[in-house]
Amino acid sequence: MLHGIIDIGSSTIRMAIYFMDENHMEMLMKKKHTIGLAAYVENGCMTQAGIDKTVEIVEEFKEFLSHFPLTSVHAFTTAALRNAKNSKEAVEDIERRTGIPIRVISGDEEAYLDYVGAVHNHPAGEGLLIDIGGGSTEIVAFGDGDIRFKTSLPMGSLSLRSEFVKGFLPTGRECLSMRKAAEERINRVAELHSISSPLIIGMGGTFKSACALYNLLYHKDRNNTLMDRTLLEKMVTIFRGDHPLTEEKSILLMKAVPDRMHTILSGLTIALVLSGHFHAGRIAYSDTGVREGYIYSEIGPKVGLK
Predict the structure, then answer these.
(1) 246 phi and psi angles, rounded to 5 deg
(2) How many CB atoms lie within 10 A of CB 172?
């Protein structure tokens, strides 16, 4: 059976088609638009321009999906629309104009779905999952086949950048301001004070982009998924906006993070603050996320997917 998924995130809107039966799941294709929906929030509300842009892209994906014999089409949205003061009105407008029901995933649900997607094929052991999106950051501590603690912080790579950065790349002073804000917001969550882990499993676009840039900059194998925290700290310094953007650095950014050049350092700032807070010296990128968790939790049981 073929199923379409539309994921309306804070940085990107993605569409994917999956084949699923009781034996396995396979992603057949995917498309995305990088629009930075979190940047369309003004005074806590999603602007009409952001709503219109979302409608435009969802309509495009809907038209594309109509050419295939799909069993179902699911759409969900996360932080950018979830956290907007006019969330209900904005989502209803998008649903009315596109004809596609949209499920608003809560922060708690998003953290849970991240966990399901990450550990579905690797249920044993314990660890710490972090998913840095454009408008929120999900943190899940797990062990013994279950979640021990999960939370969603209303802070992401795009929202933090919008708050503190004026130019294309953040300056050293702006990086310090972002770091201080991230530390303060993390310290407010008392349950995070007792958690530590030598390794963080990083999910989502920030960690994917960080890993691609890390591998190019430090001449690692392109399939490497393990990053050293000290080298990530150095990477932020190398690409800060108050250092000259040389031809060599420009080429690295264009090759590794063409869609996230403007948010990679703000996302890395959150990652570094969290890894320091949890005493983690290494970060491993995992190519799973809330979309896979949604499939396993919401669609999988209906098709008998194990």
Answers:
(1) -70, 170
(2) 13
Name the band, by pLDDT with cuts 50, 70 and 90, for residue 289: confident
* Residue 263 tokens, joined: 């948010």
In 3-state terms, what secondary structure has residue 122?
Answer: coil
Alpha carbon distances (Å) from 193 to 132, 190, 243: 19, 6, 35
Q: Which SS3 state, helix, strand or coil, does residue 279 take?
A: coil
Share of the chain above pLDDT 90, in %: 83
Beta carbons within 8 Å of 202's beta carbon, 6+ residues apart = 130, 131, 132, 210, 211, 271, 283, 284, 285, 286
- Cα 265 from Cα 22, distance rounded (Å): 41
Task: Based on DSSP, count helices (H) and strands (E) in the chain, helices before strands.
Answer: 12, 13
CA angle 284, 285, 290 (to 5 degrees): 130
Dig out the tokens for 277 from the structure: 């807070």
Look at residue 118 and give its three-state secondary structure: helix
Rounded-to-integer distance, Cα 305 and Cα 282, Å: 33
Amino acid identity at 172: G
Letter for the amino acid at 54?
T
For residue range 85-111, what is the model confidence (pLDDT) as tens digits? Answer: 999 999 999 999 999 999 999 999 999
Query: Are 268 and 227 a contacting pair, CB within 8 Å?
Result: no
Give the dihedral sign, CA 135/290/36/278: positive
Cα gap 259→174, rounded to integer Å? 21
**Whole-model pTM?**
0.87
Q: How far apart (Å, rounded) are the C-alpha atoms in residues 268 and 254?
A: 17
Nearest partner of 77 among 295, 292, 222, 290, judged by Cα: 290
How many C-beta neighbours within 10 Å does residue 177 have? 17
